[in-house]
């Protein structure tokens, strides 16, 4: 598995994965992925040895030099490949980018997504609060989580 910049040629596969992962919560459209790439956000693809996209992740960067802030917009790994370290590799790559900017990282995660919450906590994220009915149309709640700027890369604890 290799991590590389997400390209427009990957978007159709991203949309397929989105639909499988988030059927009840308005999965991202091709237009949404194109808009993210157009905005200059930092997007990555996890590509297997056969050249197939198996996951993707995106980090928005806002602010000015010396006062950056970042936000994880998405991490998605196809269901059949979950639990194989792909999501972890994508998260580590996003955090490396945030660390290079000395920027804190924010994200939202479904309150019932225990695997993702544990992953984020291992990488130094803490819960700031809850956003009621954040995911639509399901109405699922989300935790807002934050990781301070520049931490040592690696798993806490």
From TrEMBL:
Keywords: Acyltransferase, Cytoplasm, Transferase. The keyword Acyltransferase applies. The keyword Transferase applies. One of its GO terms (molecular function) is N-acetyltransferase activity. InterPro entries: AcTrfase_RimI/Ard1, Acyl_CoA_acyltransferase, GNAT_dom, YpeA/RimI_acetyltransf. It holds the Pfam family Acetyltransf_1. Belongs to the acetyltransferase family. RimI subfamily. This is Ribosomal-protein-alanine N-acetyltransferase. It comes from Prauserella marina. The lineage of its organism: Bacteria, Bacillati, Actinomycetota, Actinomycetes, Pseudonocardiales.
